[in-house]
């Protein structure tokens, strides 16, 4: 069970709830892309769904399979092929219906059809049948020891739902767990509430097994993609628990009075996945050369740095695990480039590049790849590092022609057969015959001692045939509010109108506006064309990219039909443009809502953030710029110029992190992140924007300040300014009424451009402060391959940008009557 998932359903040791209003706020690493755990193997999905969806079995604190919705462990026939499972009676779904064998049979059948782990075992299942209302029987074609672990596993889970909601997509998320879904606002929060009809088991809590208690009234999972923001939110008291924290934050959390670190030791293992299907590494000697050259100590240190967070350890399982053995480990961590060079010579290596596919989604993957590249080149390899985003890596690793190694990682799993890398059917295609025979014997053996001996043979094969390469072991860091006890995390548990009367030459202005509107239309059509072409130029099938690597050909074909991708390109283009001009920007693949509605839901924080930031920038920049120009060459002028250059040079994300740390965490003056909870009123939401607005205001004030100063310097020496002074006007009346008015045109121009850039370009700040605005939306859409949202955002932002420029031009008339159109 994932770590954060144990928080609420493993809260048994809390004597008094230690959070405000009995609501637990949990910061997670991102949005769960589905709330159906059958359909995902992602940690973040397991973390949230185990609170409201349950399985027949789970794991206890020692990773033993334990009953959950089943009465007890199953009765297994003497031949090991038949599993008879008695169901607990009185179990109620969140919709009020009672669970019976029909629900369980239908759910398990869907699991074998839809879930990746269920599909893997489907061919071994002869039948799943209801014996009576409270008994289910699973008959296998042969003994299969990992079955119970598969039924207990938290991702690609064999979740139990009411038969009535089942289908390829659930008609409703209805489970039996201790909490039920109250509200889900994607990218903002998932709010769960106590399920009053929950029937807990009678046993004492034992990790995720036993009686699950409901000590929190509500749990709110908040996606916070930036790890530093999760840290600051935890330390400032905004979050009660935070998952996936960077190792370098350990000392700060440990020294804090507000929070304490939770170290998951051990958590998982980084892996060099090897291509056995195609390319350079189909040669055993080349694989052995790769194995010999890698410096595991250097790679792990580069990746994790702190000794608290990694161990250079050869066996596939850590100390204390049943499966740990030393078979084959003498071949681990050789760090012998000379030996590797000899093996390359024996293989007749001629300099073909070794292609390493990696991503910076997990920075430690990239750091390990960099160190490996240097060692491999020293051994004589030519190395090509392909660094791509995680979604692209997911696509490319499905094509063996595109890589030799890809870098990944896995938690330590309680059942080795759950690790797909051992199987010939995995992406690696490791099909060495002796290994395959060992794996088949391992999965069908029923005696534990025999299985342990067979796994030792399997591990030996990994080293001797270089099936894949384990780099080491690493720990993970979480954090919790100080004083919370009983949390038992472990590796997998856990626009304003213009004033018409002030405008002169109305006919000319009207004509100008019409001309600009026509120009705007041309720009919008150009943007529409670019948005249309981008999707068509993306490598691969757009439908497959949108659905992700797990999509079936049938699902991709259905999406192509729904999006009209089967039509001729000209028809697609005309349809796309026509719909966009009518305001129909399509339907989001992820949200399953019109893109317009999705964008409107995210517009408020972005617009207010841009507006407040602009106001702050003007308050800082215009007075200082005017005074610096008036006192040209003075110490204040020089200080203003230097400060402006500094503000423009420092990245906004760094400024944001510093403000988070000191103004939010240390002083507690402002919220560290977010946009308020689901019940937050207007002023609370605006309060969350103060800190990011200050950051953006300071950063953007630099350009406005320099333009204001330069424009004022241009006019302060003009004849009309000297004339005004000679008439006896006060100095500040001369400066503000005469000089500033004539210097206003370039200042207004840069203000308009700044506002447009703030609306369209506050991505980094929204990300750092976890603000659910349009910038954050488009980043999430890119990562999810949600092309309709990407297209829609591009169109809306471009249109808004052109419209703001038009308003800026019209504002010239308000400040300078000499302007003519």
TrEMBL record:
Stored InterPro entries: BPD_transp_1_N, MetI-like, MetI-like_sf, SBP_5_dom
SUPFAM superfamilies with a match to the protein in the record: MetI-like, Periplasmic binding protein-like II
Domain ABC transmembrane type-1: residue ranges: 603-812
GO biological process: transmembrane transport
Cellular compartment(s): Cell membrane
Main localization (coarse): membrane
Mode of membrane association: Multi-pass membrane protein
GO cellular component, one term: plasma membrane
Domain of life: Eukaryota
Residues in the signal sequence: 1-20
Transmembrane stretches, start-end: 518-538, 607-630, 642-662, 682-705, 743-769, 789-815
Protein name (Swiss-Prot/TrEMBL): ABC transmembrane type-1 domain-containing protein
Organism, scientific name: Effrenium voratum
């Amino acid at each position: 069970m994932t770590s954060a998932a144990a928080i609420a359903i493993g809260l048994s040791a809390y004597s008094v709830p230690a959070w405000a209003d009995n609501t637990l706020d949990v910061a997670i690493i991102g949005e769960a892309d589905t709330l159906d755990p059958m359909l995902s193997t992602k940690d973040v999905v397991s973390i949230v769904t185990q609170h409201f969806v349950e399985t027949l079995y789970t794991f206890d604190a020692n990773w033993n399979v334990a009953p959950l919705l089943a009465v007890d462990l199953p009765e297994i026939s003497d031949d090991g092929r038949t599993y008879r499972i008695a169901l607990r009676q009185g179990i109620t779904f969140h919709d009020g219906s009672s669970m019976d064998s029909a629900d369980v049979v239908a759910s398990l059948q869907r699991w074998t059809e839809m879930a990746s782990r269920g599909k893997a075992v489907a061919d071994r299942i002869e039948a799943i049948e209801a014996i009576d209302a409270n008994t289910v029987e699973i008959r296998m074609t042969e003994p299969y020891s990992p079955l119970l672990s598969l039924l207990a596993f938290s991702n690609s889970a064999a979740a139990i739902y009411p038969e009535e909601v089942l289908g390829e997509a659930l008609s409703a998320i209805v489970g039996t767990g201790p909490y039920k879904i109250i509200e889900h606002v994607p990218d903002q929060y998932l709010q769960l509430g106590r399920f009053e009809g929950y029937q807990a088991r009678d046993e004492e809590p034992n990790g995720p097994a036993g009686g699950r208690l409901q000590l929190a009234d509500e749990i709110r999972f908040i996606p916070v993609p930036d790890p530093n923001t999760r840290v600051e939110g935890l330390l400032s008291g905004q979050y009660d628990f935070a998952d996936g924290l960077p190792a370098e934050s350990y000392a700060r959390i440990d020294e804090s009075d507000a929070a304490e670190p939770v170290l998951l030791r051990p958590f998982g293992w980084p892996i060099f996945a090897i291509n056995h299907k195609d390319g350079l590494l189909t040669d055993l000697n080349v694989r052995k050369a790769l194995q010999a050259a890698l410096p595991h100590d250097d790679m792990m240190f580069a990746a994790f740095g702190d000794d608290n967070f990694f161990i250079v350890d050869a066996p596939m399982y850590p100390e204390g695990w049943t499966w740990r053995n030393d078979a084959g480990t003498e071949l681990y961590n050789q760090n012998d480039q000379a030996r590797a060079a000899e093996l390359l010579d024996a293989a007749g290596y001629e300099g073909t590049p070794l292609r390493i596919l990696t991503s910076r989604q997990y920075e430690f993957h990239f750091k390990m790849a960099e160190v490996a590249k240097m060692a491999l080149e020293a051994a004589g390899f030519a190395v090509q590092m392909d660094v791509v985003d995680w979604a692209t890596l997911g696509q490319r690793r499905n094509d063996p022609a595109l890589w030799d190694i890809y870098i990944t990682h896995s938690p330590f799993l309680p059942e080795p057969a759950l690790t797909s890398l051992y199987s010939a059917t995995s992406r690696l295609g490791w099909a060495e015959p002796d290994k395959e025979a060992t794996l088949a014997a391992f999965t069908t053996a029923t005696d534990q001692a025999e299985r342990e001996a067979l796994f030792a043979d399997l591990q030996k094969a990994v080293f001797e045939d270089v099936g894949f390469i384990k780099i080491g072991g690493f720990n993970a860091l979480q954090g919790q509010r100080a004083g919370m006890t009983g949390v038992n995390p472990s590796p997998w548990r856990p626009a304003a109108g213009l004033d018409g009367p002030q405008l002169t030459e109305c006919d000319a202005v009207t004509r100008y506006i019409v001309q600009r509107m026509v120009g705007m239309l041309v720009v919008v059509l150009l943007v529409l064309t670019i948005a249309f072409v981008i999707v068509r130029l993306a490598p691969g099938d757009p439908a497959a990219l949108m659905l992700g690597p797990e999509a079936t050909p049938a699902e991709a074909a259905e999406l192509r039909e729904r999006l009209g991708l089967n039509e001729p390109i000209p028809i697609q283009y005309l349809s796309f443009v026509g719909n966009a001009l009518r305001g129909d920007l399509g339907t989001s693949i992820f949200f399953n809502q019109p893109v317009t509605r999705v964008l409107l839901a995210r517009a408020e924080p972005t617009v207010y953030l841009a507006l407040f930031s602009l106001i702050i920038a003007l308050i800082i920049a215009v007075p200082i710029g005017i005074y610096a120009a008036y006192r040209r060459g003075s110490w204040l002028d020089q200080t203003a110029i230097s400060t402006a250059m500094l503000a423009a040079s420092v990245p906004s994300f760094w400024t944001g992190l510093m403000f988070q740390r000191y103004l939010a965490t240390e002083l507690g003056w402002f919220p560290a992140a977010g946009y308020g909870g689901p019940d937050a009123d207007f002023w609370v939401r605006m309060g969350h924007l103060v800190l990011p607005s200050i950051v953006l205001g300071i950063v953007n004030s630099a350009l406005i300040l320099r333009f204001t100063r330069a424009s004022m310097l241009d006019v302060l020496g003009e004849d009309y300014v000297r004339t005004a002074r000679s008439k006896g006007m006060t100095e500040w009346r001369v400066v503000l009424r005469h000089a500033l008015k004539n210097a206003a045109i370039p200042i207004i121009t840069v203000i308009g451009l700044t506002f447009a850039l703030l609306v369209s370009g506050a991505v980094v700040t929204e990300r750092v402060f976890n603000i659910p605005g349009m910038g954050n939306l488009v980043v999430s859409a890119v990562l999810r391959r949600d092309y309709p949202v990407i297209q829609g955002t591009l169109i809306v932002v471009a249109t808004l940008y052109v419209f703001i420029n038009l308003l800026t031009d019209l504002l010239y008339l308000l400040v300078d009557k000499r302007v003519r159109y």
